[in-house]
Protein: LysR family transcriptional regulator
Amino acid sequence: MNIMHLRVFKLLAENESLNKTSKILNISQPTINHNVYLLEQHYGAKLFDRSSKKIKLTRFGEVLNNYVSEMLNLLEQSEKHIQSLVGEVSGNLYLGASHTIAENVLPKIMGMFNHDYPEVDIHLEVTNTQHIAERILEQKLDLGLIEGPVDHIEIKNIPFMRDELLVVLPYNHPLAIKKSLTLKELSTLPFVLREPGSGTRVVMESSLKAAGLDPRELNTVMELGNTQAVIGAVEAGLGATILSELAVTKEIQLKTVKTCKIANIEIKRSFSLIFHQERPLSTVCETFLAFINSQEIASIFKDRD
Structure:
């Protein structure tokens, strides 16, 4: 049963004629009969009496007709309401996003949001978590999508998806055949890391410290300011790194890197949406917040939970 079945039912009940209903809807009489048949099968009751020249509702049809009138009226109101809201949502949205999110998560979200709200102009600044938080506090950005934790009384955090960090090795590295590395093996590797202040680095260092490995003991040979530069260095054989598995999806497919876990440790984190606690949110911001936390967006990344 769908809305079309109900519309056919309603018009047939009003006109009491297959011919008139057929002309109004521009569909054949057999199609109308089939729609009615499907409804009758669904409800398990005869909805129309066809014994006279005019088609009349049965008592079961009368009951359904009352509800159908209300349903179609509500549907019409919802369509008008949504159309008015879509038309109202316009203006600028200033977003900040950390590198992993900007490169691997936001493109899908922004594409879908732009489709639904074409009058919104998104201005995106891609930088690390610490800088995004600073820009939020300066009220230079409306919203931030970040990888690392931010603990500030004036900043509100709303988690919107989960992520896991893995060790990333050059494809032909001797340890790349292993599914997991011990902390001892980890400490023997040269590391190429994101810069201090990166959300990825903050989460990595916190997890290693909790597991008993001082991050300062890692043999860090290079620090780079964006994720793609780090991946490029790993591909070139300059060292290993620890990154989101989202960030190296393409490289895994191309067989330029391999990933493995750290034995007995799961480095998991939440991606969060942040905004200034004291600054009133615009309609555009509220719409984006509702959109990014919708079931539609959650279903895209459900395998990340």
